[in-house]
Design a protein that fits this description.
Layout lengths: L1 H15 L4 E9 L9 H23 L4 H13 L20 E7 L4 E8 L5 H11 L4 E3 H10 L13 H13 L2 H7 L5 E6 L5 E7 L20 E3 L4 E7 L1 H6 L2 H12 L3 H16 L3 E7 L4 E5 L3 E8 L5 E5 L2
Helix pairs in contact: 2-3, 3-4, 4-5, 9-10
Length: 324
């Protein structure tokens, strides 16, 4: 009996001393190569990733939940035109911004998502509002905008999201109308964050402007729970970035979770199997970041690069762009 109590005390102490962890991505793509980026661009990517990580670190230090931290980190990235989410999003075929986001709480599997937003400053806050204040999981289009406005979220003119650099990119795209060139030559859209807090709760979120030149009504994987985002504190939290149609067809985020649960192998191995084998064999470009239930960080991508970074409690942030 004494031995059992001793082991239990050690277990409880270990749980109470768990360190929080945060991992983020800012998109993947074959345009993320050192010979395609200037030193100024590279420095800006690293600085932007580090700023987002420090916001998450401060949130966890303040005792916020994993879910709240995910929302704050992604909001900071949505406000940064370096990324394709919120301000600086890529433009649709018609030259407008159409924004998607999702968020999931791994402690209870609650989820919320929005697609096709046009006037809400931070789409991730709308996804969180769906999770917290709606019986639904996914709202889209004008209905999603109306719901977010009713929740008194910050509303902006649609022109707020459009930047000069994205207008130039859209005009170049119009000349070719080539999705293949877009996927081959540029960075994919999307930002994402996964947090595992001191209690072991995992939350994940994803936000994006989608694909350059996408047709009206197109929805990618980012707002689809199980495709672009998934979180279960007993398995993994995952956020995806890449060619969304492939991620939807393969339920990538959930598939990694299911493989982790059924095969009892670490999250990195499961992610590599899905991204490097299943997606690659189908021609699906992109990557994932995540954290598994044991606290293992997950990074896997099959493109030239993926903007990514991580931080653990008490440690300095780490950021990466290219394949190491």
């Amino acid at each position: 009996m004494r031995k059992i109590l001793t082991l239990l005390a050690i277990f409880i102490a270990g749980v109470s001393q768990a360190q929080y962890q945060i991992i983020i991505h800012g998109g993947a793509g074959n345009g993320l190569r050192s010979d395609r980026l200037s030193k100024e661009q590279i420095d800006e990517f690293h600085l932007s990733l580090e700023q987002a990580l420090r916001i998450g670190d401060s949130a966890q230090q303040a005792g916020l939940s994993a879910l709240e931290t995910v929302s704050l980190v992604i909001q900071s990235m949505e406000n940064n035109p370096v990324f394709n989410a919120g301000k600086g999003a890529v433009l649709t075929y018609e030259g407008q911004a159409s924004l998607d986001a999702s968020i999931m709480d791994g402690s209870n599997l609650a989820a919320g998502a929005v697609a096709g937003l046009s006037c809400i400053k931070n789409p991730i806050t709308a996804a969180l509002a769906v999770l917290e204040s709606s019986p639904h999981v996914l709202l889209s289009g004008p209905g999603a905008d109306s719901f977010a406005v009713a929740m008194e979220l910050t509303k902006v003119d649609p022109s707020y999201f459009i930047t000069e650099s994205k207008i130039k990119g859209w005009k170049r795209w119009l000349k070719s109308h080539s999705y293949a060139d877009t996927l081959r030559d540029f960075k994919m859209g999307t930002v994402g964050c996964v947090v595992r807090d001191r209690e072991g709760n995992i939350a994940a979120g994803t936000s994006t402007g989608g694909m350059m030149g996408k047709r009206h009504g197109r929805i990618g994987d980012s707002p689809v729970i199980g495709a672009g985002t998934y979180a279960n504190s007993k398995t993994v939290g995952i956020s995806c970035t890449g060619h969304g149609e492939f991620f939807i067809r393969n339920a990538v985020a959930y598939q990694i979770s299911a493989r982790y649960e059924l095969q009892e192998q670490n999250g990195q191995k499961m992610a590599d199997w899905v991204v490097q084998k299943i997606l690659k064999e189908q021609g699906g470009d992109g990557g994932v970041i995540g954290i598994d239930a044991q606290g293992g960080l997950i990074v896997s991508f099959n493109t030239a690069g993926m903007l990514r970074g991580s931080i653990k409690e008490g440690e300095a942030p780490q950021t990466r762009i290219f394949k190491d």
